[in-house]
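Hello,

Our lab assistant flagged a job as stuck in the queue for most of the afternoon. It eventually completed. Since we weren't sure the result was trustworthy after the delay, we are filing this so someone can double-check. Below is the sequence as submitted and the structure that was eventually returned. Let us know if re-running is recommended.
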Amino acid sequence: MSSARYRKVVNKLAFAALALGILASAGNAQNAYEGKFTLPFEAYWGGSTLPAGDYTFELASQSSPYTLYIHGQKSNVIIRAISADTGVVASSAQLDLVDISDVHTIKTFEAPELGVTFSYYTPKEKHMAPKEVRHKGLSQTEPATQASQNRMSISVQSSGR
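-- returned structure --
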């Protein structure tokens, strides 16, 4: 075998070994954050509707674009945050929901382990007069409670990283 052919073969083998090494290290990459949560009801999240059930998720990177890979029994979705704020209010990881026009909608994901609150697309609420809620036992002369937007949180069990 001539030396030129020998160099070509060695170069091809070295390139193949380098490519395999890069692919192997990419396959073993650690996620920046992962965990699980349970939705007790159907919820809208960043353009996708998730049915009630148990879910796991991974956040591949702590840099933009902030993409969550969500896996459930009935649904697998990819959701991107529209922003990330370093002001975290919660002491434990949680999904913050709002009720917009009777649709449960995930508005933020608070991840205190990362020191970040991720915000997601939510549809605009149609401007309607606030609902009046009267409780039994209150006289009709007492003021009604204003309830234009209900808020709630769902706990997230993080695996951290």
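-- support follow-up --
The delay was a queue issue, not a problem with the job. The result is valid. Confidence is low (pLDDT under 50) at residues 128-148. The chain is about 15% helix and 40% strand.
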